[in-house]
Amino acid sequence: MTAPSPLLTGLRCRCPQCGQGALFNGYLRFRDTCTACGADFKAADAGDGPAVFVILIVGAIVAPLLLVLQRLLPDVVALIITLVATVVLCIAFLPPFKAILFALQWKHKAREATHEDVE
Ligand SMILES: [Zn+2]
Question: What is the rounded CA–CA span in Å between residue 29 and residue 40?
Fold first, then answer.
C-alpha cells in the first residue's frame, strides 16, 4: 500500500498513514489514534509552524484587500471587512495547515532530536 499524499490528506484533515481516519478531535486537537487504522498520534506536535504559514498567507491576502477596499469604501467599513476576513481566513486555514505539516512530519519520520541522535 502506498502512503497517501501529505498534501491531500492534510487538506482533508485525515490520517497521514491511511488517509481515511479523522485527524482532529475538535478544532485543532489531535486524536490519540486514527479511527480507521489505529496509527498512534500521541507524539503529534506540529509546533508553531502552521501558525507562521497561516499568518504569511492570510497577510498576503488581506493587506491588498484593505488597500483596494479603502479606495472603494469608507475607511472604517474597509477596516471592519478586512478584520473579519482576517479572522475567518485564519480560522479556516489553521486546521488544514496543521494537518499538512503533521502529515509531512509523519512521512519523513521527523521528531524531536534526542541525546541518542547526537552520539
Ligand atoms: Zn489511519
Answer: 14
